[in-house]
């Protein structure tokens, strides 16, 4: 049996841009992606603390050091610049493996999106 567990989490980062005219996705600073063990094109869930919206999309690698968190395309309607979100990715693991699996959780500074 396999179960879905949290693989990675970027806890409380601030939306820096919302680009409605882009194809779709979320752009995340490459430094944050690496720290959270998230790769480009990985499916993620976005949870907006400000308005309760939840959505799923995929990740685009942002410029390293930019601190960018940008919702693109239709997702841009789900958050405003300045909203605080949580970004979560999941993995399917064997039940026994899941019991000892430890997700990668990071807690950037919400005001700057810099790693603490």
Would you mind describing this structure in some detail?
With 116 residues, this protein is mainly β. The chain has a single domain (2-99), classed as Barwin-like endoglucanases (Beta Barrel). It is 11% helix and 47% strand. It contains two helices and eight strands. It has helices spanning 30-36, 95-100; strands at 2-14, 17-19, 25-29, 43-48, 54-62, 69-72, 84-94, 104-106. Strands 2-6-3-5-4-7-1-8 form an eight-stranded mixed beta sheet. A hairpin with a 5-residue loop joins strand 4 (43-48) and strand 5.
Describe the structure using short key phrases.
11% helix; 116 residues; 2 helices; single chain; mainly beta; Barwin-like endoglucanases; 8 strands
Radius of gyration based on Cα positions: 14 Å
**Helical amount:** 10-25%
Oligomer class: single chain
Rough outline: globular
The total count of strands amounts to 8
Question: CATH topology, anyone?
Answer: Barwin-like endoglucanases
Task: Please state roughly what percent of the residues sit in beta strands, choosing from under 5%, 5-15%, 15-25%, 25-35%, 35-45% or over 45%.
Answer: over 45%
Q: Whole-number average pLDDT?
A: 97
Q: Low-confidence stretches at least 5 residues in length (pLDDT < 50)? A: none
């Amino acid at each position: 049996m396999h179960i879905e567990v949290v693989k990675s989490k970027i806890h409380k980062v601030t939306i820096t841009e919302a680009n409605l005219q882009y194809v779709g996705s979320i752009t995340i600073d490459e430094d944050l992606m690496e720290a959270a063990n998230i790769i480009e094109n990985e499916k993620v869930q976005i949870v907006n603390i400000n308005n309760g919206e939840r959505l799923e999309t995929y990740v685009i690698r942002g410029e390293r050091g930019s601190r960018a968190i940008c919702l693109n395309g239709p997702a841009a309607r789900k958050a405003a610049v300045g909203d605080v979100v949580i970004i979560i990715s999941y993995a399917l693991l064997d039940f026994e493996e899941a019991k000892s699996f430890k997700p990668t959780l990071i807690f950037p500074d919400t005001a700057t999106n810099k790693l603490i």
